[in-house]
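PROTEIN DESIGN WORKSHEET
SECTION A - STRUCTURE
LENGTH: 306
TOKENS:
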């Protein structure tokens, strides 16, 4: 399977996902062995126009562990020539000459596609506004496989800011590659799952419900996928306050959950999973974040070994 740009989750089929997960498992061994120098002559650039901890640092760590070099800017909106009026397209044309792969996070939906249209090296979408976050969804799926042992026959509850949650959108798209998937969307009224995502699920024959009662859907869930209410994307503080704090996973919710289920969260969290939950073995979100390193090593390898 060839992979060049990584722009959205719809570009992956089941065979590609199997291959990426096989490589990801081998990357766990590479890290365990102390790393590799296979990309000593390669440069990865991170261009982040929005804040990040996990995505940027795990891509940078992934490249370092594969022996490559990393350049970039963590605040491209202020510390790149964007602030002088340079277009995204011109920035990408120039940075392509300095890089072998570019990882970009941007405020605008579709920014990664715009970058890919002019780049001369692979572009990896690390989040485009409220659009998609494909590498996150890949690590989410890898984590489900690793924790639960299967990707078919799953009952998944997606909770929180489903309108702005780009990881949710990408994960929904990836899940359409599997059999007997049922999704429950549990969200405050003003941040429901977009109709575009529901339409895609309909086309692919995935069943879903929109359910306000978290305790009810938690009881049958294999995966509770919690997300943060994204304050930075609301037009007004009032709208944010309407959505905030409605769904919190705490000891009470744990009491409804099956013993063999898991809780995921792309992180960062902002109060929607109580700290008391962290000690429960079903709390898989920090293991999930660690898997991000291995997935991103696999993606880098796929981009270079076409
Ligand atoms: N999950 C995720 O994208 O985290 P960061 O915003 O810290 O990169």
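SECTION B - SEQUENCE
RESIDUE ASSIGNMENT:
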């Amino acid at each position: 399977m060839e992979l060049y740009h990584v722009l959205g989750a719809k570009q992956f089929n089941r065979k590609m996902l199997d291959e990426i997960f096989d490589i990801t498992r081998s990357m766990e061994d590479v890290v365990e062995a102390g790393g590799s120098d296979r990309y000593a002559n390669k440069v990865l650039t991170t261009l982040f126009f929005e804040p990040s901890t996990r995505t940027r640092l795990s891509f940078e760590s992934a490249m370092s562990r594969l022996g490559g070099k990393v350049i970039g800017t963590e605040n491209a909106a202020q510390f790149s020539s964007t602030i002088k009026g340079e277009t995204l397209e011109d920035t990408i044309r120039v940075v392509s000459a300095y890089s072998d792969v570019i990882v970009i996070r941007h405020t605008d939906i579709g920014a990664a596609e715009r970058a890919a249209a002019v780049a001369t090296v692979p572009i990896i979408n690390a989040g485009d506004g409220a659009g998609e976050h494909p590498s996150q969804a890949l690590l989410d799926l890898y984590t489900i496989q690793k924790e639960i042992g299967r990707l078919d026959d799953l009952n998944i509850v997606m909770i929180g800011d489903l309108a702005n949650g780009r990881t949710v959108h990408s994960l929904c798209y990836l899940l359409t590659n599997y059999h007997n998937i049922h999704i429950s969307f549990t969200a405050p009224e003003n941040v429901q799952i977009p109709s575009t995502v529901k339409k895609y699920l309909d086309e692919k024959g995935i069943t879903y419900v929109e359910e306000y009662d978290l305790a009810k859907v938690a009881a049958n869930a294999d995966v509770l996928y919690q997300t943060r209410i994204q304050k930075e994307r609301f037009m007004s503080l009032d709208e944010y306050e309407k959505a905030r704090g409605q769904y919190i996973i705490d000891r009470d919710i744990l009491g409804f959950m099956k013993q063999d289920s898991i809780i995921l969260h792309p992180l960062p969290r902002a109060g929607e999973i109580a700290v008391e939950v962290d000690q429960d073995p079903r709390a898989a979100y920090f293991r999930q974040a660690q898997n991000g390193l291995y997935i991103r090593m696999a993606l880098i390898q796929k981009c270079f070994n076409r």
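SECTION C - NOTES
Residues 285-304 form the longest helix (20 residues).
Residues 134-289 form a domain with the Rossmann fold fold (CATH 3.40.50.1370).
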